[in-house]
Amino acid sequence: MTRAQQTISIGLLVTSLPLWALVSFGAFLLFRLGWNVMTFHDVPEAHKELMTEIDLAKAELRGLGVDVD
């Protein structure tokens, strides 16, 4: 292997590392997203709070004359 071939090979290796880092990071994020979706737990308190906020918003809109049903 000549010195030029060696330099080109090392250059290609170094320039391909950011691409591999980006692909690996994306795969890791997709895995984390899938895992969190699979292990999602319902939170009854958050559901009650959200329903209360929805009822409050409906009451405010009715007060302004908007039909929400």
UniProtKB/TrEMBL annotation:
Topology in the lipid bilayer: Multi-pass membrane protein
GO CC terms of this entry: dolichol-phosphate-mannose synthase complex; endoplasmic reticulum membrane
TM ranges: 12-35
Signal peptide: none
Chief site of localization: endoplasmic reticulum
Localization annotation: Endoplasmic reticulum membrane
Gene Ontology biological process terms, A to Z: GPI anchor biosynthetic process
Pathway given in the UniProt record: Protein modification; protein glycosylation
Family as reported in the entry's similarity comment: Belongs to the DPM3 family.
Function, in words: Stabilizer subunit of the dolichol-phosphate mannose (DPM) synthase complex; tethers catalytic subunit to the ER.
Assembly behavior: Component of the dolichol-phosphate mannose (DPM) synthase complex.
Protein name in UniProt: Dolichol-phosphate mannosyltransferase subunit 3
Organism name: Anthostomella pinea
